[in-house]
Amino acid sequence: MVNASAADVTALLHDYDHLDGVFPLVVSSQRLDTPGAGIERVATRMRGCVLFFCRELEHTLDIHEQASGWSRGTTVTTHSDMKFGHFYWHIAAADADRPRTRIRLDGRFQPELHIPPVIGPGLMRRAIERELRASVRRIEDALAAPEPPAGPDPQ
Prior knowledge:
- By secondary structure, this protein is an alpha+beta fold.
- The protein contains two helices and six strands; from the N terminus they run H-E-E-E-E-E-E-H.
């Protein structure tokens, strides 16, 4: 749950040139030429570490936004260090009385790299989930109303 309006969260998450401000794993991102109507192509460079194992990967996605609040991202394997990837997310207002938004995310991907057995898929999955939870805080921080300037010093 994010303490911000659905419209603001949607705008932030679809600002593809600045995903590094939201997602800790993203080092850089940029919108590429659109491959077709209704599709946004986004290239990211991601860096993540699990224990002593750190890697940087290229990941390009074709993103299809739906009017219903659902979006779908499909890995462009020819431009990625991924064997495959499919992601679905939904952004929706969660509370009529306050600006709160629920983000649902589901997906699967497999990087084109060898993961040492001591790390394994379980540790990798937990590390990614931890980074996604940190993203919620970063979304709230990015959308937080600025503090009003302090008034004159009442001496």
